[in-house]
Structure formats: structure tokens, C-alpha cells
């Protein structure tokens, strides 16, 4: 069936219409004419697979990635100009659809390194023909795809991955095999040319000589073991054992020196994260009491600390809170304090809040958090979001009290459909 592609879908698909119902086509680009086959029909839409591009978009390019099956990067077939257009367009569509916002959106802040930007990788391992391999799971499945090179990982991660594999093969480390025991994943993180390795495995012993060999790899600064017994969404299990090197990774942002444990979250693109945080600092007005919810290792709170008399961060990962409090102390801020717990329940207990920074997970703000915000009514909210749909829905829910002041999207995850956004919201009513 021939289909004219009219617009972008949130997951990077092209959308055409058949009998006024949307047809989602993975790999198609707006303004293309494509030949498709309907794969699945639902009540209000269908999914189709792309058979042939009959009229090509000027944004189309030959995918530079040899691992088309991986599905990790939905926009490999789109040139960078097209990727930026896609991201700006899905943000605009989401804000119009859910928040009825049709006002100004500032230009997307482009990524300086559109390949090789990811500072961390999580790779499942499997034995094939008796040899350990790293790979990825095909999107949305547990199907292992061996992958020996990823274009969006930082080059250092790729170098260490292949050297680490040689080491794991030398010691014939078991991978989850028939008896259900062994290595599951390797996680590699890179900050400022230093590498941290986390071996995610069932309870098992790694020999001291293997750990020493890993620590001897160029730039490797620490090795950890995460014990994970059951499958779960969380990459790590409940226990984290330090196997050698230095416990924390170190990262500098402007004049701040920050430490980071393996479980603590940090944005995947270090250089764009810095641009994002600096924008938050620039847009935040001076205030007495600043709260940052979902604060991770506290980078935004600490960058903004000179603008507030008191800063209070909330984060539920214990290690991140430990890092954040150490980061406050080591950078000489005694008016900044972080507490472990759920954002909504701790935020609702704070007496006075003038400004609030939120950077929630993809699911956005939960309803207790939105209720607490509408009750406390801080003058300004800086909302950092990695999901335009939940961002727009949350703005709609806060609309009775807040108006959009500024919106700036960032390309943090080039080659993928994801877009990061900062919105400044200002209270429009006087406090009840
Ligand atoms: C998108 S990350 C942002 C972290 C930090 N702002 C940064 O830029 O590095 C979201 C953070 O929220 C934390 N988190 C998720 N749900 C939470 C909740 N209900 N209460 C407190 N923290 C939560 C996660 O552990 C994670 O560190």
C-alpha cells in the first residue's frame, strides 16, 4: 500500500493516514511517499513495516550503523538536520496537544559530538561458540544481538570494552549459563579519561589476579561487582561490592568538583549535561529557599547554590544522596543539604519554597508531587524533562497556577528520538 508520510511520531516513526487513522511506519520520514505493509491493526491506529521508499526526504541518509537490528537509535537513517527538526517538532506537537501551548520555543541546542558522546554503556554478555561476547538486547525483547562496536559510545568505552573482553576470556568467566550462574552484564562509565567497570553477576567470586588485570587496563580507575540474582528492570542488583581502585569517579563542572558512585545517576552526555545545568543556573532567579527534587548527585543544586540562601535536595538513591552531601561539603557549601526519600513526600513537608527544580524520570511528576507543588506554589519552577509527552501533560496539570516563561530543548541523545527540555514556569496567581 502506498502512503504519504505526514508527520513524526514520538518514537521516531513516520506517520501517514489511512481512512483518517494514523499508520505508524518505522524508518519512514515526513514528506516521503512509501510503500508499506500493515502489520498490526488496532482500534484507532495501525503499525506498518516499510517496504520501499518511493519518494525520499532530503533528510534521508544511508545508516552509518552496521547493527540495524539493535533498534537503540531510531534516527540513524536521518541526517543531523532532520534529527534536530524531528526533535523540535515532537516537542511542539506534544506541548500543543497536551498543554494547549502554541507559544515560543527557543532553538534546539545542538550536540557538538553527534557520535561518540555516551559516557556510559550497559552491555549484556553471552557465550557464543565458547567465547564471551558483548551485545545488546533487541529493543523491547530479551533477544541477544552480538555487537562489537557502537557509534554513540565514547571511543574510550569502546577501547576498554574490547580489552575487558580479552581479560574475561582469558579467565574463562562463566556467563549466565545452564545452571543460571555467572556474569550478566558489564557496565562501563567514563568521566575525564577515567574508567569505572561494574561486573553485574549472580553471586560468584572473581579471582584477585583477574581484578588486578582489569585495574591494569589503561585509565581504568575502579572495579565493582553488582550482585544480581533475579531479572529486573534495574540494571544493578541489591548488593554492590567494591573490588579495587578508587571508590568514586570525579567530574568537574565549572568550579565544582563532584564525586560519583556507580549507583548514582548522571546524564549520559557529559558536555550537553553541562550546557543544560548552566541554563538552569542562568534562568533561576535569586531566591531564599530553593528545592531540587530528583537531585541525583546534586549538580544543579550546587551550581545554583550561590543564588539561594538555603538549598534542599531530594533523591531516593542512597549512594547519590551520599555523593550529593559530600559534594556540598567538599565544595564549601554549608547551606546546601540533601535528603534521601520520595520527592513528593519530602517536598510536601518543607515549610517554605521559593523556587523548585525538578528533573523527574521519563514518567514525569507523579500526582502526589503535582498536588504538593500546587499546594506549596513556589514562585518559579525549572522543569528539566527527557520526555516531551509527560512534560506537556504535567504543564497542563499545573496550568491553573503556572504559566510557561521559557522553553529550550537540547539534543543530548543524537541518533535517537529522545529530546531533553528545560521549561521555566512562573506562578501567575498570588499565593493562597
Ligand atoms: C533524570 S534523573 C536526574 C538526576 C539529576 N537531576 C541529574 O541531572 O543528574 C532522575 C533522578 O530522580 C531519582 N528519582 C526517581 N524517582 C524518584 C522519587 N520518586 N523521589 C526521589 N528521587 C527519585 C532517580 O534516582 C534519579 O537520580
Walk me through what this model shows.
By secondary structure, the protein is an alpha/beta fold. The chain has three domains: 2-60, Nucleic acid-binding proteins (OB fold (Dihydrolipoamide Acetyltransferase, E2P), Beta Barrel); 96-112 and 268-427, 3-Layer(aba) Sandwich (Rossmann fold); 120-251, Beta Barrel (OB fold (Dihydrolipoamide Acetyltransferase, E2P)). Helices cover 24% and strands 33% of the residues. The chain contains nine helices and 21 strands. The protein has helices at 80-99, 155-170, 208-215, 270-283, 299-304, 318-330, 343-347, 367-376, 388-398; strands at 2-8, 14-18, 21-25, 33-41, 46-55, 120-128, 131-137, 144-146, 183-191, 194-201, 220-227, 239-245, 249-253, 256-260, 287-293, 308-315, 336-340, 355-358, 380-385, 402-410, 420-427. The strands form four sheets. It has a seven-stranded mixed sheet, with helices on one face. A seven-stranded mixed sheet has the order 17-16-15-18-19-21-20, with helices on both faces. α6 (318-330) links the parallel β16 and β17. α1 (80-99) packs parallel to α9 (388-398). It is globular. The termini are far apart. The model has no long low-confidence stretch (mean pLDDT 95).
Amino acid at each position: 500500500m502506498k502512503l504519504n508520510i505526514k508527520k513524526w511520531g514520538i518514537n521516531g516513526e513516520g506517520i501517514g493516514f489511512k481512512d483518517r487513522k494514523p499508520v505508524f511506519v518505522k524508518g519512514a520520514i515526513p514528506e516521503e511517499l512509501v510503500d508499506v505493509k500493515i502489520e498490526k491493526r488496532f482500534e484507532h491506529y495501525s503499525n506498518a513495516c516499510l517496504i520501499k521508499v518511493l519518494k525520499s526526504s532530503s533528510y534521508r541518509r544511508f545508516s552509518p550503523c552496521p547493527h540495524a537490528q539493535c533498534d537503540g537509535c531510531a534516527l540513524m537513517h536521518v541526517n543531523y538536520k532532520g534529527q534536530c527538526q524531528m526533535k523540535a517538532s515532537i516537542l511542539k506537537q506534544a506541548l500543543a496537544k497536551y498543554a494547549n501551548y502554541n507559544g515560543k520555543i527557543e532553538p534546539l541546542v545542538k550536540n557538538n559530538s553527534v557520535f561518540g558522546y555516551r559516557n556510559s554503556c550497559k552491555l549484556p554478555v553471552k557465550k557464543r561458540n565458547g567465547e564471551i561476547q558483548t551485545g545488546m538486547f533487541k529493543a523491547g525483547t530479551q533477544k541477544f544481538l552480538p555487537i562489537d562496536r557502537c557509534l554513540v559510545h565514547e571511543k574510550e568505552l569502546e577501547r576498554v570494552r574490547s580489552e575487558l573482553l580479552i581479560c574475561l576470556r582469558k579467565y574463562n568467566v562463566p556467563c549466565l549459563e545452564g545452571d543460571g550462574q555467572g556474569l550478566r552484564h558489564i557496565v562501563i562509565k567514563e568521566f575525564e579519561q577515567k574508567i569505572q567497570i561494574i561486573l553485574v553477576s549472580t553471586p560468584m567470586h572473581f579471582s584477585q589476579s583477574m581484578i588486578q588485570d582489569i585495574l591494569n587496563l589503561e585509565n581504568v580507575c575502579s572495579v565493582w561487582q553488582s550482585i544480581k540474582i533475579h531479572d529486573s528492570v534495574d540494571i544493578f542488583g541489591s548488593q554492590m561490592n567494591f573490588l579495587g581502585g578508587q571508590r568514586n569517579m570525579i567530574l568537574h563542572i565549572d568550579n565544582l568538583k563532584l564525586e560519583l558512585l556507580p549507583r548514582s545517576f548522571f546524564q549520559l552526555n557529559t558536555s550537553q549535561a553541562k550546557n543544560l545545568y548552566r541554563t538552569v543556573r542562568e534562568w533561576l532567579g535569586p531566591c531564599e529557599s530553593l528545592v531540587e527534587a530528583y537531585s541525583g548527585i546534586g549538580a544543579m543544586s550546587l551550581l545554583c547554590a550561590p543564588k539561594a540562601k538555603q538549598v534542599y535536595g531530594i533523591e531516593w538513591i542512597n549512594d547519590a544522596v551520599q555523593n550529593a552531601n559530600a559534594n556540598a561539603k567538599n565544595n564549601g557549601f554549608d547551606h546546601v543539604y540533601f535528603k534521601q526519600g520520595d520527592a513528593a513526600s519530602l517536598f510536601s513537608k518543607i515549610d517554605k519554597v521559593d523556587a523548585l527544580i525538578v528533573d523527574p524520570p521519563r514518567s514525569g511528576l507523579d500526582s502526589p508531587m503535582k498536588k504538593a507543588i500546587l499546594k506549596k506554589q513556589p514562585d518559579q519552577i525549572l522543569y528539566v524533562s527527557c520526555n516531551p509527552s509527560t512534560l506537556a501533560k504535567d504543564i497542563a496539570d499545573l496550568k491553573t497556577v503556572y504559566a510557561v516563561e521559557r522553553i529550550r530543548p537540547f539534543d543530548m541523545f543524537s541518533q535517537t528520538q529522545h529530546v531533553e527540555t528545560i521549561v521555566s514556569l512562573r506562578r501567575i496567581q498570588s499565593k493562597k
